Automatic annotation (TrEMBL):
A Gene Ontology molecular function term of the record: alcohol dehydrogenase (NAD+) activity
Family matches, as Pfam families: ADH_Fe_C, Fe-ADH
Protein name: Alcohol dehydrogenase IV
Domain of life: Eukaryota
Species: Suillus discolor
Membrane-crossing residue ranges in chain numbering: none
Length: 353
């Protein structure tokens, strides 16, 4: 719980021409009903949707909405992006390609997945295929981080999406295209995620820990304008393959794959990337092992220990992943050109089975 001498952090931040503001701190807003009431008083309420499907864009058009407010985890945030994207496609066809303004989204996240800071969204179509849409204008125009609204989030979802944020931060230390200032933010995010996930596990009503975790999630995937998308890290790649095919939540896939993938970086990453990973120990106030490779492996061990401390240890077998499909998953993740890497990825998948 929050003690008398602790101050819950609060403030705001503006970013580029798409994301106009991030507001954080308890009582930024209320629950869904309160949001509805506020909009109704301002004659701005159209409708509330809790089941998103292929006809959602038409439903939004029917109420003539110009802003979508998403409340929840990455799914409603990404669903809102997908709806806005499809609506924009429809409108472009109707106006012979005339450039029109995108609808805007205000995101009120209750998990730590950080979907609200990106311009892309993934969803499964009616054929069961994973579809990805992306556009600079899909990043929400406003984001509200209210720790009190996360109190009803189930513990496993809250903590596992925190591990997803850790996955964002750690893999940004070695995936290509991440500028140095963002790497420093990721180092800070790693330190706060390690510290406050444990505190949040010990006391689920600790609003200071929850608010710090929301800000750490923000730092893990700091919003920026991207002209060309760089490859994601191996942990994310494996997570996408496992999540889409076997229905494993992305937070859980991060619990499964991040530690062994980081351990692999001690063997395959560039010296520069390994040094960024090793530097995380400094932010975690942990002594160096004396070698860069040793420090990377120590970070891997600490991540695995954190997963265990949070009660999030899982296996692929728990989610019904057939052992016979391990090689296929590895091939889908890294291809077949680099046989040595493919072999190492297969070993990772076998180790978490």
């Amino acid at each position: 719980m929050t003690t008398a001498n602790e101050t819950v952090p609060a403030g705001s931040y503006a970013y580029t021409n798409t994301l106009e503001g991030v507001y954080y701190g308890p009582k930024c807003t209320g629950i869904v009903t309160k949001i509805e009431n506020i909009l109704k008083k301002s004659n701005a309420f159209g409708a509330t949707f809790s089941e998103i499907g292929e006809h959602a864009p038409e439903a939004v058009r029917e109420v003539d909405a110009d802003i979508i407010v998403s409340v929840g985890g990455g799914s409603p945030v990404d669903a809102s992006k997908a709806i806005i994207f499809r609506l924009q496609q429809q409108r472009a066809q109707e106006t012979s390609g005339k450039e029109l303004e995108f609808l805007r989204q205000i995101a009120i996240p209750t998990t730590l997945s950080a979907a609200e800071y990106t311009c892309g969204a993934g969803y499964t179509n009616k054929q069961g295929d994973k579809v990805v849409v992306a556009h600079q204008q899909l990043t929400p125009a406003g984001i509200i981080l209210d720790a009190e609204l996360t109190l009803s989030t189930p513990e496993q979802l809250w903590l596992s999406t925190g591990m997803r944020a850790l996955d964002h931060a750690v893999e940004s230390l070695y995936r290509p295209g991440v500028p140095l200032p963002m790497k420093k933010l990721c180092h800070a995010a790693i330190a706060d995620l390690f510290r406050f996930l444990v505190l949040s596990k010990k006391d689920s009503e600790d609003l200071v820990a929850r608010q710090r975790l929301q800000v750490a999630s923000w730092m893990s995937l700091w919003p920026r304008r991207i002209e060309t998308h760089s490859p994601v890290g191996l942990s994310h790649t494996l997570g996408h393959k496992l999540g889409a095919t076997y229905g494993i939540p992305h937070g859980i896939t991060s619990c499964l794959t991040l530690a062994p993938v980081v351990n692999l970086q001690a063997e395959i990453a560039s010296q520069e990337d390994k040094e960024y990973l090793a530097e995380a120990l400094l932010y975690l106030r942990e002594p160096s092992t004396g070698t860069v490779d040793g420090d990377v492996k120590k970070l891997s061990y600490m991540i695995a220990s954190l997963v265990q401390e949070l009660g999030l240890q899982k296996t692929l077998s728990q989610y019904g992943v057939p052992t016979a499909e391990i090689e296929q998953i590895a091939v889908r993740a890294v291809g077949q050109e680099d046989e040595e890497l493919l072999s190492k990825v297969k070993i990772i998948l076998e180790s978490i089975y």
